[in-house]
Amino acid sequence: MVTHVPGVALRSSAEDAGLSIGYTRTLTIAPLGADAPAPGRYGPGAVLSGAPPLAQLRRIIGFDLALNPGRVGVMLGFSEDALLARVPARASMVRRLVLVPGQPAESRLTICREVEECN
Amino acid sequence: MQLKRLVVAAVPLAVAACEPSQLIMGARTVIGINAQVNPEQTTGSLVIGYDRNFAAIVPRSADPPPPLLDDPPSASGARDAMAALVCSDLKVQGITIRSYTESMATGDAAVRFARNLGNDRAAIRDFFSCFRAVPAGDGS
Predict the structure, then answer these.
(1) Which of A7, A62, A105, B125 is the most buried (most CB within 10 A)?
(2) Pick from B61, B82, B109: CB nearest A113
(3) Domain of life here (chain B) (predicted)?
């Protein structure tokens, strides 16, 4: 899903908390769930809840305040943050991620148990 | 367009102390002013201008697992934190990511995959692009 937020964008998840002022565009690949928004484009006011994203790319023009356990900081200007993989150490899986920020419909994540299932 | 082809070979990582329990890969690009600290590691940085990072945080410890396939425990008692095989292809246009493609196998699937490297190379090449021949002119 893609969100476009001109103005103030608040991030309230524990691992990715922060606030940005300006323009924020976020491409998120998350597991489909009952409380997750359907794939698509969203404007201001969208609430991204549910499981943590499996991959995410966020561009910010303006000011950003990050308040994460691993990073506390401020940014003024342009930033592009990409979470490309987050896999538990004990996981056994095969996955293929295609992330195309300019064409979100082409982005996809496939997770399989074995390589043969993903080919 | 700049093409970066990155192959992170994956080998079991020896266990150490309590460290990240997930494999995390990410990238960050900043133009402007960026000041940040890492409270967990008591480090910080100040960037004025341009900065780009591509990083992987690898687990250095894990909960006691069942042994990977039929691997016996090592004599030292060490165990693997994680086995992973990753092929990624990052294309950058100007200062932004144009596309990112990643093929990854972890855990038992990665071990099985590595063991079958010599048996079924066609399937490996199909899935992991970095096993294919790199055309002349592409960076690697």
Answers:
(1) A62
(2) B109
(3) Bacteria
**What is the overall mean pLDDT for chain A?**
84
A116: chain B residues, CB-CB within 8 Å: 123
pTM: 0.76
Token pair 């894990």 in the structure block, residue: B62
Boundaries of every domain in chain B: 32-57+81-131
Minimal Cα–Cα distance from A48 to chain B, Å? 20
The set of residues, in sequence order, having a beta carbon less than 8 Å from that of A61 and lying 6+ positions away, is A22, A23, A77, A78
- Selected for mutation to probe chain B from A16, A86, A96, A112 (highest B CB count within 10 Å) is A96
Closest listed residue to residue A93, CA positions, set B24, B9, B56, B111: B111
> Two tokens at A23?
């323009």
- Distance between alpha carbon A99 and the CA centroid of its chain, in Å? 11
Q: What integer is the mean pLDDT of B108-117? A: 81
Within chain A, residue ranges assigned H as helices are 115-118
Task: Give the HSE-up count for residue B116: Cα atoms under 13 Å, Cβ half-sphere.
Answer: 16
Residue B100, exposed/middle/buried by CB under 10 A (0-12, 13-18, 19+)? buried
CA atoms within 13 A on the CB side of A31: 7
